[in-house]
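tool_call: predict_structure(chain=1)
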Amino acid sequence: MVITYPSKNHIVSLPFGYDASNDKDYKTFYELFDNKHPGIDFDLPENSKIYSSINGIVVRKEFHQGMGNTLGIRNGNILSIYAHLNEILVNPGQIILQDTFVALSGNTGMATSSAHLHFELRDLSKTVLKNMVFEPIFNIEISNFKNEFIYKVNNKNIPKNALNISERYFGTLDFAKLILERNNLDLKYDTIFPEGLELIIPNFRNQ
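tool_result:
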């Protein structure tokens, strides 16, 4: 998989891994990531066009307290995140081609002090959030792409079944059947998975 730039303007205002430990403006934003910036910020005026950096399926379209209007597009184990948006032009479950116009940049959410795009990549095969993020390198093949990956069921916060796993990784309930079939599970869609079950998460289509 090759990652392309999410905007026509490539000016970086805050690089990946920036240490905000002693930065009064940013320190609290990145506490979950050991005070390191987990993505790349692009210096963009509000309402600049944002493009999908990957082929994928929309799995996230929501308002996040810190990241504001947030879009997530997944392909295999790679999740691309676009944050602080003014407007999102695509919907959960929609399959998107790379370089598709998907959103308008903005300054939404609490973890921002000026208009910009926060772009982030996560490797969903990792289990800890701060270990998921990795540095985006554009226009070069990335080595950690996996067409399918393993999710180990954790029911501590929300009991997991085929429906909410489908919504989590496909943005829609429509892939519940595919999840059960891929894992050879003869269960109803709303049957709670056993704690610790290792589920194969298939891709949105064969690559």
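agent: The radius of gyration is 17 Å. Proceeding to next step.
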